[in-house]
Structure formats: structure tokens, C-alpha cells
Amino acid sequence: MFKNYLKIAWRNLIKRKVFTAINILGLALGFGSSILIYLFLSYHLSFDNFHENTDRIYRMVTEEHRDYVEYDPSVPPAFAKTFLNDYDYAEKVAKIVEYDGLVVDAEKNGVVSKFKQDIVFAEEDFFKIFNYPLINGSNEISLSAPNTAVITESAANKMFGRTDIEGESFVLENDKTIEITGVLKDLPKTSFLQTEVFVSFDNITDFFEFAGSENWNGITTNLKCFALLHPNQDIAAIEEALTELPKMHRPKSKNKHVYKLQPLSTMHLDATYGGLDPTLLWVFGIIGLFLIIIASINFINISTAQAFYRSKEIGVRKVLGSIKKHLFWQFLSETFVIGLFALFLGVGLALLFIPAFNELFQIKLAASDLLNLKFIAFLSLVLITVSFLSGSYPGLLLSRIVPVLALKGKLDHNDTGGATTRRVLVVAQFAISITLIAATLIISRQIDYAINTDLGFDKDFVVMVDIPTDMEPVPLKALKERLGQIPGVENVSACLSSPGAASSNWGTSLKYNNRGEHEEFSIEIKAGDQNYLKTFDIPLVAGRNFFENDSLIEVLVNERLGQKLGLESPEEMIGKKLQVSGDINVNIVGVVQDFHDTDFTQEINPVFIGSKNSWFSELAIKINSNNTAQTLEQIGNEWESAFSEYIYEYRFLDERVAEQYETEQRYLSLSKVFSVLAIIIGCLGLYGLILFFVGQRTKEIGIRKVLGSNVGDILTLFTADFFKLIIVAGAFATPIAWYLMEQWLQGYAYRTEIHWWIFALAMISIMIITLITISYQTLKVALASPVKSLRTE
């Protein structure tokens, strides 16, 4: 019986090739999108689930309670040793420090190559907590001695051209010779750590002394602390016990620490501590569901529209003995065949777009991810669900046709039903499309607002170049002078980072004008020389610029500091003393206008700007727009003559600012891609419907033309009903989209406004797209001779 169903279904589908193709293409786009989204969700939900003791591994994190709560994915450097030795909660505790872009020299095929490499300084017990085995399968990883390292297979091949390299060495930062004690298997793509070179933690003090200290007075986010707990630990009880540590080691600090344990299984999807926002996964999942719904709506609409034209077929079948159940399963079989073809096409589309999807979202999906039982089960479930939901309503509708009326040709579209359902479903399609378009417009406006709004400093044509942090003042000054003499260079400043570089923010304690206690809030340190203000075009509002000295004596602050202190004017801060970081005592000589020291998700912080050579890590070079390539080349020549042992790299500051909104850019790309897909799928359905409606009303059009109607009148006849449905859809979509986008914008301290015209524009866009979609068939019949139309049977 089932074989006969499929055979008849195939014949019916071949008979109506155009509508079959529309249904297959619409469902294929829905399936393909859903497959990509399934892979995306599976990828992010499988992070760090491959370790033997995943349920017992925790990262130690800190809540910093000042005038607001800040969440830091780290702890003070001294925490790890205390937690392991003074408490009986953990089997192993280990620290790592992540360091980006260190210079590595390695010999490959007899040639020494120099390149930048991300490094992790790791304690040996780190590899006893996590399962990152050597290529020989063992876990005997040795990092106990200074100047030792383990690297991955990929790193070994990149650095040496082979993997049998135990006992060989590379040079780190032109100074330290590091011996390789083992080669690791490549880390799984779903590991929170993707660095390929691990150096002994004993070497961290050569690069970052604070991270290797036993200090309780500060936190660096580069340092991470992990613990493998004993089985069956009560996490709440541990966290309660840890409340004693700040009282013991930080009794007078206004920055109240609360130490927490974060499960390894939640790290990747915990936005509080820098992980991926799980909302993104929900958004992906809902959009994937929407696309499947839109494709299914197309199928239902076209199938119910065909009911009138298949009425005689149904009548004959019923007269010959078919019962409702047989007819229902016959139409469900047709849906299944269409769904099966669409599924294969959808898999092909997904495979085609995996590389672009990976590049867009910076993930590592592969075709091999489709070769597992979970994916096959997912496809089967989607196929069966879509086939049943899409085919059951048309099947029930067609199976209820009265055979006598069908054979006599007495049926009309009201008898076959589905008209009201089609309107409701088309409204749902339009509402989804309007919501996606409105969301795209709002996200785009917010990103544009964040990037192009006045940030309080000049980011255009400013080139940022790294310099060694241990550079002496005299050669640094000489380099700045040489760079300043290059035609096209307007200003040069040595600094810790650019004004808005959130990744380099250094928040610290503050005591103002010899007050008895530290303030409740922290202050951000921005290090820069005397040219800092001029290079970034930051205006002074009171006082003067500082003079550079051998030691840090004079500093600038911003207006926000005065506001936080409750002062009435910036001038009140001039001449006052400031103590920061516990032991830095300086005089305030000037106040600068507020600038955005971080991205738009956060309020502007109190800022301190001072000149201290040991803090400088970058040069900010302001250039003009003439002969940019030549200017950059000359800057590179001067830089390389000063730092021949390092690698010259530069970035434009405006690019860095844009990178701060990388997540938002991905949201925007997501909205654009799926908005277009929703529109394409919806247009396929509209095109299929208009084919039926034009065929149904061909004689009517002929009569109207004979009676004097023009092409515009005919076009209006077909578009008016659709435009009414779009207006109804807009009425439903507007409050939903408004609410969702209002919630999203709550994450920004500085945000754009949601205007009514955004939703009007989304509706107008859908109207224009609808008009274009249905115009071809409508104009074709409207321009045809009325004689031909009236002869249509």
C-alpha cells in the first residue's frame, strides 16, 4: 500500500512540476538553514565535555563589589596556593596566564623563522586537571622546570616541519631559549583553550611579574585559576568558606572580593564572565524554527490552493472506493516525497555554505559533523515533523471533499476550504519577515551609532604599533623624533593603549586629596606621554597638560572623576593630590573632557592619564590621508631599524574600535542573512499562490479589460489583498519586534532610539518585495488579449 502511495505521489508531483519545484526549493532553504543552525548549536553546547572529570573541574572567579558589581574570570595570584594548601576541597589547583603575540624564533628545514605566537604559561598540574594528551597517548607532561614547553602537533609542524622534536628548542622574545619536552595532540576544537604553545609557569615573571607573585591586592584577567575538586563537594559551602579570605588578606579594601566557583561545563556559555551570551543560541534556534515554519506555510498555502483543481480527482477516487484515511495518507505521501527531496537539497546547501558560516561566526564546523547518529536522528525528526505538519492539514482538507459536488463541477473555493487559513498563514509569514527586517535595521543603527558617534577622541588615521615594554626612554624619544619627521606623520605618542581600548583597561583603587579612606569606585589608568592629548585630539577643560619627568609626578583626570567625587566643577580638582594603586602619589594638573574609555555597553569611567615609560607598550601615530601607503612603509622602515629583532605590525585605530562590536556585527550578519532567507522563502510561496489566483481569475480579468479596466487596475486587483495582509502583519509584528529590540538595547549604556519609521520601512519593504514578486504573472495576464482570456476553460 505504501509503495502505491509513493508511486501515485511521484506521478502527481511530476504532473505539477512548477509547484513541486517551488515547494522543494522553499523547504530546502528551510532545511539547509536549520542544519547549519543545528551544527552551530551542537558546536557551542559541546564545549569542554571531553575531559574525564568535567563535573569536578571549576574555574575560580571573582565578584568585585564597588559602587557596582564587576565580574572577573580570575582571582588574585595568591589565591591558588592558599586554596590548595589551607583547604581540603581540591585534588589539584593550577594557574595559567594567556599571553598574545610573543615573538618566537624556530628552525624549520635549516631556516630560522620569526613569527608571533600566542603563549600560555601553565603550571604542570594544569595537564593533570585537563585531558590534553601527548601524541603518544600518555599524560606524562613535564613543565616543572623553567624554560620548558609542550606544543601541539600543528605548532610542531608549523615551527619545525615535523613532530619528533622532543629535546629541541625555540627562542622566546629574542631572549629565552625554551626546550620542548613533549608534543601534544591537537586540542579539540571545542576546548575553551585554543593556544598551541604551553611554557612553564616559572617563566611568567620574565614577562609579567605580578602574575607570578603571591599578591592579594589585584587581579589580571590574563591569569586563570582552575581546580579539580574532590568528589561530592558542596559548592555553596565552599563559597561560603571563601568569604573569610578577603577579610584576612584585604581587610581595608573598598573593593570587596567575593570568590566563586564556576563549573567548567558552563564557562563557554556564561556571558557574565566573558563567555558567549546564551541568548545568541536562543535567537539562532528561534530563527531556524521560523524559517521551517515559513517553508511549511508555503507548502500548506499552495496545497490548499490546489484543492479546487484536484477536486475531480478526489471525487473519482471516492466513487471508486477510496476512504478518507486512504486519501489522507496519499497526500501525506506526496508531502513526504517533497520533503525527502528538499532534505537532500538542504544538506547539499548546508555543506556548500559551511565554510562561509565558519568565517562569519569564527567557528570550526566541518562536513564530518554530519556523520553521526545524533545528526541523522535530527534530520529524521525534522523530516517527519515537517512532512506531517505540512501535509496533514491539506490532506484532511482534500479528503473531506464531497464527491457528487466535485464531479458535477459545483465546488467553489469556499467548498474546498483553506481561504481563511491561507490568509492567517500569509500574515504569519509577513509578520516574521517584518520582525527580522526591523531587528536588522535597529541592530545596524546601534552599531553605526557606537562606531560613528563622537567618542571624545579622534580615531581616524591613527596607526597603532606595538613596541617592546622594556624600551628605555632615550631610544624611545629618538624613535618618536624620527617618526615625527616622516612626511605625512602629524603626531606621535607613546602609550599603554588607545583611549577607548577596553581590553587594556587597568582599574585600580583611588584615594583623593588625602581623604581618610579610599573611594568606593575605581579609576582607570591610561598611560601616555605629553603628546597623548594632541595625537588623539582630547580637549582640556581645565588646567594644563602635564610635564614629563623621570618619575610620575603630574597627571590628568577626566570630568567623570569630579562627578563621582561630587564636585561642582572640574577646576576644583586642579592642584589636588591623588593616590592610586596603593603607592602611586601624584598631583592633578589638568582635567580633560570625558571620552569613551570602553565600549558603549558601559558608562564612562573615571580616568587617570600619566606618563611612565615602563607602562608604554604602543606607539600611536597620527597620519594624514595623503600618500598613506608610502607613509606606512616609511614608519615600518624606522620601526624595523629600531627593533630588528621584533616583527612590525600595525592596526588602524578605527578598525580596533569596530572590533569591539564584533559580537553585534555577528548579530547583524545573522539578521541580514536570515531576513533575506525568510523573504526568499516567502516570495516563493507568494509566487506559487499568484500562479493559482491568476489562473482562477483569468476570465474575470478578460471581462474587466473588455469593460475598460487598464493594467494598473488589474495589478491593484491582485496586490490590494496582499497589502492589507501586510498591514495586519505589521500590526502584530511591531510590538513584538519593539519589545525584543528594547530588551536587546538594555545591554547598552549609550544607545540609539527605536523610531516608528523603522517598522513602517520594514512594512514598505515587504510591500515592494511582494509587488515585485507578483508583478510578472499579473502583468502577463493583464497584458494578454482579452479574447484569449475569455476562451480559457
N-to-C span: 35 Å
Radius of gyration: 34 Å
How does the helix and strand content classify structurally? alpha+beta
**On the 0-100 scale, what is the average pLDDT?**
84
Estimate what percentage of residues fall within beta strands.
Answer: 15-25%
Largest sheet: 8 strands, mixed
Helix content: 40-55%
Tertiary shape: globular
Domains counted in the coordinates: how many? 4
Total strands: the figure is: 22
* Separate helix tally: 25
Residue windows where pLDDT falls under 50 for at least 5 positions? none
Q: What oligomeric state do the depicted chains represent?
A: single chain
GO molecular function: transmembrane transporter activity
Keywords: Cell membrane, Membrane, Transmembrane, Transmembrane helix
Pfam family, one: MacB_PCD
Subcellular location: Cell membrane
Provide an overview of this structure.
It is a multi-pass membrane protein. The chain crosses the membrane at residues 21-41, 280-302, 327-355, 375-403, 424-443, 673-694, 714-734, 754-776. Keywords: Cell membrane, Membrane, Transmembrane, Transmembrane helix. It comes from Flagellimonas flava. With 793 residues, the chain is of the alpha+beta class. The protein folds into 4 domains: 1-47 and 283-417, no CATH class; 57-267, no CATH class; 418-456 and 662-793, no CATH class; 469-645, no CATH class. Helices cover 48% and strands 17% of the residues. It has 25 helices and 22 strands. The strands form 3 sheets. Strands 13, 14, 15, 16, 17, 18, 19 and 20 form an 8-stranded mixed sheet that branches. A 6-stranded mixed beta barrel has the order 3-4-8-5-7-6. Helix 9 runs antiparallel to helix 15 (419-452) and helix 11 (324-361) crosses helix 12. The chain is globular. The two termini are 35 Å apart. The mean pLDDT is 84.
